[in-house]
Write a structure and sequence with these properties.
alpha+beta; flat; 20 helices
Length: 619
């Protein structure tokens, strides 16, 4: 930064106001690289340039590039929130959270013409029309539109009615798909009433329409007009079929949005489940990137602000009275006040704590996880979809990444002998046996599990680096605080302080985290706990199997070592040839004598030493 630029920044920092507002950071070329909001512009902007401030890598890089900044003072936090959103959308600053919207998804559009049309579009315009969507499930959108066309006679022509009038009705009139408002066969009031019902149906409010159709059907049946009654019956069934595809477990029949959120490292996905009259009508999803330093709450706040600011600018009537979130965030009261003012009615944003509402949020979170997984799969980041248990683990353990790869260490020994370690590897919640490793502990400290764990972790991570393989997202240590402490010392010595590691004690299934005195206990039915148990049990199985193999070899060799003339090399030759003690005992004297380094004399001694004792010796 030049001396002139530094003096400009210093002068501006000294004159900052304490009022709320928005600040725009600029680089040497005058390009806006970051937009932020502040309750107090002086405190917030100055915090970037304080020498002792602890900033992350992204923020430090942003500050390094800043040569100037502008501020916009507003009257309240709510105004700052909406202004920040608009400026980010307009300027797309490099260091802000990026939001990939879904404007390419289709909408159903009801035009604002005197005789409105209903059709599919992918572009949004402020032309007074009503938009329903976006529909991420295009098939369901087509089905909804087909039901509307069967229930109602909406015109499909492109005449600018009533200015442009054809000479006669088109084919749609003759086949019953339109009542020809173009030639005044249908009055404007009748057509407008039909359009109002269509918007009710597309908005999910089908009960009043279905009730009216049933009343008309009953009246037609009483008047002996069975053909008309049959048509109305079919219409009701079509309406019910549309409802049946939208059922969700909200039995209260209320209008609400459920916001779900999932994160994996610097990427996240936000989802809005739109529930109207207790039925799921649609799902709006957006992806967030560039989240290296932002917390989950800040990312969720960004998502919610932009989604609802965009929605209210298109259609203020689409705002439901309730929105549920899975976690709280700092700007929630401000956003609630802003939405209430723009919608001009009561709007409540809250975080449910129990019951059915928590289940709804869980469903939205699950949708967000699946969409994020789908995005990663499309980018070949993961070979297969990660299970929900991994996202639960990430949340419980407060991990920066979803633990797609995990390693678990276990120590096994026989009263301080045959000390071995196992390291089993899981990918996306499933064993990756090609990555399993076992090792003999070289240290001569017997049954000191802490020292053995230190050696095992050191050797495994060192070899992982030497082989050029990526480190796991999570390391699990079979044991309590002592074993975890030994693993942490090993990782610190290797300069891997950022490696996520936990301890899992079997007795009470307690999870121990570094630098945390109290343990975590998950419910017994928790999918995350069951996954950890599978990982731990597999590490224990692998370690104890190797220990038993070494113990068996030691037992066999100890028995062979009592035979005169059979030293370590001959013991090894016997086991290599015949595989086990049983194989050696079953071998003939000639087969043993044929081995290199053996002869008839040694073979005879081996057979005599291993011959079974006579259970009935002569007296």
């Amino acid at each position: 930064m030049s001396t002139e630029a530094f003096s400009t920044l210093d002068a501006k920092l000294r004159t900052l106001t304490t009022q709320p507002g928005v600040y725009l950071m600029k680089d040497a070329e005058g390009v806006i690289i970051y937009v932020g909001k502040a309750k107090s512009l002086r405190s917030r902007v100055r915090s970037y340039f304080q020498g002792g401030a602890q900033h992350g890598i992204k923020t430090r890089e942003m500050v390094r590039r800043v040569t100037d900044f502008d501020t916009i003072v507003v009257r309240s936090e709510a105004e700052a929130l909406i202004l920040e959103n608009n400026l980010i959308k307009e300027n797309r600053p490099r260091f802000n959270i990026n939001l990939r919207d879904d404007k390419t998804y289709p909408y159903i559009k009801v035009t604002s013409e005197p005789f409105p049309r209903v059709y599919v579009t992918r572009s949004l315009r402020k032309d007074g029309s009503r938009y329903f969507g976006p529909y991420t499930d295009v098939r369901r959108m087509r089905q909804s539109l087909e039901v509307v066309k069967k229930l109602y006679t909406v015109r499909s022509c492109h005449y600018n009615l009533p200015k442009e009038v054809p000479a006669r009705p088109c084919l749609d009139y003759h086949i019953g798909r339109c009542k020809a408002p173009c030639v005044a066969f249908q009055t404007p009031d009748e057509y407008r009433g039909m359009i109002e019902e269509i918007t009710e149906v597309l908005g999910g409010h089908t009960r009043l329409v279905a009730r009216r159709l049933r009343e008309e059907m009953q009246k037609a049946a009483e008047e002996m007009n069975f053909e008309r009654a049959g048509e109305l019956r079919d219409s009701i069934r079509q309406l019910e079929s549309l409802e049946s595809r939208q059922q969700i477990m909200d039995v209260s029949g209320s209008d609400r949005d459920i916001v779900g959120f999932a994160r994996d490292g610097a990427e996240a996905c936000g989802v809005v489940l739109q529930i109207r009259e207790g039925k799921l009508l649609g799902r709006e999803a957006q992806f967030l990137t560039n989240l290296e330093e932002e917390g989950d709450a800040e990312a969720l706040s960004t998502f919610a602000t932009r989604v609802y600011a965009d929605r209210l600018s298109r259609d203020p009537e689409s705002m439901p009275p309730e929105v549920f979130f899975g976690m709280d965030f700092e700007d929630r009261p401000v956003l609630e006040e802003l939405l209430r003012a723009q919608a001009r009615r009561a709007v409540r944003l809250h975080v449910p704590q129990r019951g059915e509402k928590v289940q709804l949020v869980g469903l939205a979170d699950q949708n967000a996880r699946h969409l994020l997984e789908e995005r990663k799969l499309m980018g070949n980041v993961a070979a297969e979809r990660a299970p929900d248990a991994l996202y639960e683990l990430q949340e419980v353990l407060e991990l920066p990444l979803v633990p797609r790869t995990m390693v678990c260490f276990d120590i096994s020994h026989t009263q301080g002998t045959e000390v071995v370690a196992s390291a089993v590897f899981f990918e996306n919640g499933a064993p990756a046996k090609g990555e399993y490793r076992k090792m003999k502990i070289r240290g001569d400290w017997g049954n000191d599990d802490f020292a053995s764990m230190h050696e095992a972790v050191t050797r495994w991570f060192s070899r992982r680096v030497e082989e050029g393989k990526p480190l796991p997202d999570l390391a699990v240590i079979d044991g309590g605080k002592g074993q975890l402490g030994a693993a942490l010392k090993a990782l610190e010595a290797l300069d891997f302080p950022q490696q996520a590691v936990i301890g899992l004690a079997k007795k009470e299934e307690e999870i121990f985290l570094p630098r945390r005195s109290d343990s975590i206990r998950l419910p017994r039915r928790s999918h995350a706990l069951r996954l950890l148990q599978r990982l731990r049990d597999e590490a224990h199985r692998f370690a104890i199997t190797y220990n038993r193999k070494l113990r068996t070899k030691r037992t066999i060799r100890s028995e062979l070592s009592t035979i005169p003339g059979v030293g370590p090399s001959r013991q090894k030759a016997l086991l290599a040839k015949f595989g086990s003690m049983r194989g050696v005992m079953a071998a003939s004297e000639a087969e043993i004598a044929a081995l290199p380094g053996f002869g008839a004399s040694i073979a005879r001694k081996v057979k005599e030493a291993l011959a079974p004792a006579d259970p009935h010796p002569l007296a």
